[in-house]
Amino acid sequence: MWHRSREVIRDARVVATMISWIMKKMKVFLTKTNIGLVPADTNTTDWFNRLKAGEVVKADFKKVRNYAFLRKYFALLNVAYDNWTPGPVDSKYGPVEKNFDRFRADVTILAGYYDVTVRLDGSTRIEPKSISFAKMDEESFSELYSKTIDVLLKFVYNSGITGDELNRIVEQYMSFV
Questions:
Q1: CB atoms within 10 A of CB 10
Q2: What is the spatial distance between Cα 13 and Cα 151, in angstroms, rounded to a whole number?
Q3: Above 90 in pLDDT, residue 9?
Q4: DSSP letter at 90?
Q5: pLDDT at 87
Q6: How many angstroms separate the CA atoms of 127 and 124, rounded?
Q7: Which run of H or of E encompasses 147?
Q8: For residue 52, how far is the Cα from the chain centroid?
Q9: Average model confidence (pLDDT) for the chain?
Q10: pLDDT per residue over 144-167, tens digit each?
């Protein structure tokens, strides 16, 4: 019994250490209001609610590119991913599944935002460029958004709808989430 309780205490300390590390490394998004800075998303709200009253945190502030536009971009990708039905695929590696991260990477590449890298065996590989705030300015991101719509209309919607219709669907989707 004593041995088991020591394991539980040790496990609790490990979890506490991991949570502490995550809270130290987490990126939070804040919005300026008349009363001060407030959490801008649910992850930040959750993080903020875990802070104890009087607890001091350190922050390096950066003005983000356009957080609402980034949310719209991911709403666009989510809507398209939900509407995408991949064709039948045979694989020698087993069953094939839909994967959002692969979908996002492929859309980014097809939109023309990629780097070509060399692999260990000498072959090349196409990797999507990062869309992080630090790596892409507002103008480039706006261009990526526009080209993403073109890619989705061609490969997901087979030109069955217009870009304006897709944007309206995305706006409706954003009003529900």
A1: 10
A2: 48
A3: no
A4: -
A5: 85
A6: 10
A7: helix 138-155
A8: 28
A9: 84
A10: 999 999 999 999 998 788 999 998
**Secondary structure class of 66 (helix, strand, coil):** coil
Q: Per the structure block, which two tokens stand in for 68?
A: 């609402």
19 residue type, one letter: I
Q: What's the pLDDT score for residue 29?
A: 81
Pairing, β 124-128 against β 114-118: antiparallel
Range name among 16-20, 118-122, 165-169 with the lowest pLDDT average: 16-20
125 DSSP β-pair partners = 117
Q: Which amino acid is located at 77 in the chain?
A: L
Under DSSP, is residue 63 helix (H, G, I), strand (E, B) or coil?
Answer: coil
CA gap 98, 143 in Å, rounded: 26
The strand pairing partners of 117, in sequence order, are 125
Query: Which among 42, 5, 43 has a CA at the least distance from the CA of 27?
Result: 43
Residue 106's identity, in one-letter code, is D
* Nearest residue to 148 via CA among 78, 68, 64: 78
Nearest Cα to 106, choosing from 141, 155, 153?
A: 155
Does residue 119 have a pLDDT over 90? yes
Cα 147 from Cα 152, distance rounded (Å)? 9
How many whole angstroms separate alpha carbon 30 and alpha carbon 32?
Answer: 7
Which pLDDT band, with edges at 50, 70 and 90, does 89 fall under?
A: confident
